[in-house]
Amino acid sequence: VQLQASGGGFVQPGGSLRLSCVVSGVPLNYTAFGWFRQAPGKERTWVSVTAVTSGMTVYAETVKGRFTISRDGARRAVYLQMNSLRPEDTSIYYCAAGNVISSTLRDSTKYAYWGQGTQVTVSS
User: Within 13 Å, how many C-alpha atoms sit on residue 14's CB side?
Assistant: First the structure.
């Protein structure tokens, strides 16, 4: 396993979770990483992605202002802080890394390395 995601769980609306993704075995020169999610019966969509060198970071409109993506300086771990969670945030969350150019950061098919996913459930 090259990316190991953790931190998911069950939380009430308005709560917070912090997802972590430990990176191992992946070439350290990857240029981008991101978080994606997939709800049952739906396609995988991007949540937040960032270019490592430029620091360019984008968030999906549905999570902007609530979620924050970050990484450690050694490129060995990436995080997703999720605040003010809503029931519609319920999904399996996946971390990903790869050599991705800025114009295609949101395209999940451009990422070569994926974590196994961690379930986030938001419900009262």
Answer: 1
Angular region, 74: left φ>0, alpha ψ -120 to 50, beta rest: alpha
| Other CB atoms within 10 Å distance of the CB of residue 36 | 24
What is the residue-level pLDDT of the chain in tens, covering all 124 positions? Answer: 589 999 999 999 999 999 999 988 777 678 899 999 999 899 999 999 999 888 889 999 999 999 999 988 777 889 999 999 999 999 999 999 999 988 899 999 999 999 999 999 999 9
Which tokens in the block code for residue 34?
């991101």
Task: State how far the alpha carbon of 14 is from the alpha carbons of 30, 32, 92, 108, 109, in Å.
Answer: 34, 29, 18, 28, 32
Nearest partner of 98 among 47, 23, 43, 46, judged by Cα: 23
